[in-house]
Automatic annotation (TrEMBL):
Gene3D superfamilies documented for this protein: Aldehyde Dehydrogenase, Chain A, domain 1, Aldehyde Dehydrogenase, Chain A, domain 2
GO BP annotations listed: tricarboxylic acid cycle
Protein name (Swiss-Prot/TrEMBL): Succinate-semialdehyde dehydrogenase
Molecular function via GO: aldehyde dehydrogenase [NAD(P)+] activity; succinate-semialdehyde dehydrogenase (NAD+) activity
NCBIfam families membership: PRK09406.1 (NF006915)
Length: 457
């Protein structure tokens, strides 16, 4: 795949970029490793000053940044601006909280025969981040902010279709005051990742992306014995029980499925509804999906823009077509539109069975699977019948049912009577084939630290 900005609304190649040469990659790694030697000794106050300055710049430039992201991957302008502002919030969260999150943790010195005993969290060094295109700024920031505040330095290998966003992040951090070499964008293809990760000067890696990409990075990191954090795909359940507020659940379900044009790992994808309220919920949900406006992502009246890539749109269409050929039913949508751009309509599919790919695969587009279940045990069975375990949603006013969903859904996150969202204040990540490790909150900043035990006699 070439490194280029291609407008998903038109299919037009807007700008191409020359990949970094081996010599340029070597120079970037050398620069990062040398910078870590002194950057690790900067104080939290200095790092926080640079990070707040970066957040100020990002907020001031939010409209321009939003337009750039919309051009590169097709999200609506409103959602792109929200992402820019959320990224600034992520910078500020770690600027304000890193020192407390990384404070020494005292231990029971008497129990271990010491005068003093504690753990101290110290940075690992150069961390490689391999990032996806769907939230091109936020997903990179949720690595960059904690890594830099912990004293690490970063190398970013971003998705090849969002090069302008990737270069912007390195630029805005530089303009915020972070010294040369603290955070660099590498315009490289996936074939160059292994070489960077195997470099002995690179201490660790983090990847957000597809399961195959995660396997590849994890295999290399395992061979090199380097720590990794992986956030991979999701096929999140959205369970609705009879005691739920059906109007609120249906409204939220529409947003949860089509957020980011349906291209979110934590988007709800499988809607599992108790038979007693299935018909009523289905009617409200389908009506909500049908009411959405699909079109130009720069138009403020647009709800759903194009998918980011032509191959992505084709894969979504193929998944739906395969299900229909095996007996599934289309409640709305399901037809690939003619004309320019990589659009796909909000779609609801019913009658999905375990033999269909839609039953277990992630669908990275605005396609919802609707399932009828007889009770909570069957709801949990369907919810867990997937190799993924990222986010989940359950709607019920019954406290006992809430506890059963909290304990019983196999996922890294469960949101009760709400929609799965990533917050700087909460750990983010999954289990099973959705990956391992956690981003954000305290877990995110500790992921690339050496938790060093200190015993003083």
């Amino acid at each position: 795949m070439s490194i280029a900005t291609t407008n998903p609304a038109t299919g037009e190649v807007v700008k191409t970029f020359t990949p970094a040469t081996d010599e340029e990659i070597e120079a970037a790694v050398t620069r990062a490793y040398a910078r870590f030697g002194d950057y690790r000794h900067t104080g939290f106050a200095q790092r926080a000053e640079w990070m707040h300055a970066t957040a100020d710049l990002l907020e001031a430039e939010a409209d321009e940044v939003a337009a750039m992201m919309t051009l590169e991957m097709g999200k609506t302008l409103a959602s792109a601006k929200a992402e820019a502002l959320k990224s600034a919030k992520g910078f500020r969260f770690y600027a304000d909280n890193a020192e407390a999150l990384l404070a020494d943790v005292p231990a029971d010195a008497e129990a271990v025969g010491a005068a003093r005993a504690f753990t101290r969290h110290l940075p690992l060094g150069v961390v490689l981040a391999v990032m996806p295109w769907n939230f091109p700024l936020w997903q990179a920031v949720r690595f960059a902010a904690p890594a830099l505040m912990a004293g690490n330095v970063g190398l970013l290998k971003h998705a090849s279709n969002v090069p302008q966003t990737a270069l912007y992040l390195a630029d805005v951090l530089s303009r915020g005051g972070f010294p040369d070499g603290c955070f660099q964008t590498l315009l490289i293809g996936s074939g160059k990742v292994e070489g960077v990760l195997r470099d002995p000067r690179v201490a660790a890696a983090t990847l957000t992306g597809s399961e195959p990409a995660g396997r590849a990075v994890a295999a290399v990191a395992g061979d090199e014995i380097k720590p990794t954090v992986l956030e991979l795909g999701g096929s999140d359940p959205f369970i609705v029980m009879p005691s739920a507020d059906l109007d609120a659940a249906a409204r939220t379900a529409v947003t949860a499925r089509v957020q980011n044009n349906g291209q979110s790992c934590i988007a709800a994808k499988r809607f599992i509804v108790h038979t007693d309220v299935y018909d009523e919920f289905a009617a409200k949900f389908v009506a909500g999906m049908e009411a959405l406006t699909v079109g130009d992502p720069t138009d403020p009246d647009t709800d759903v823009g194009p998918l980011a890539t032509e191959s992505g749109r084709d894969e979504v269409a193929q998944q739906v077509e395969d299900a229909v050929s095996a007996g599934a039913t289309i409640a709305c949508g399901g037809t690939r539109p003619d004309g320019a751009g990589w659009y796909y309509p909000p779609t609801v599919v019913t009658g999905i069975t375990p033999e269909m790919a839609l039953y277990t695969e992630e669908v990275f587009g605005p396609v919802a699977g609707l399932y009828r279940v007889d009770g909570i045990e069957e709801a949990l069975q369907v919810a867990n019948a997937t190799p993924f375990g990222l986010g989940s949603n359950a709607w019920t006013a019954d406290e006992d049912e809430q506890q059963q969903f909290i304990d019983g859904i196999e996922a890294g996150q469960v949101f009760i009577n709400g929609m799965t969202v990533s917050y700087p204040e909460l750990p983010f990540g999954g289990i099973k084939r959705s990956g391992y490790g956690r981003e954000l909150a305290g877990n995110g900043i500790l992921a690339f630290c050496n938790t060093k035990t200190v015993w003083v006699g």
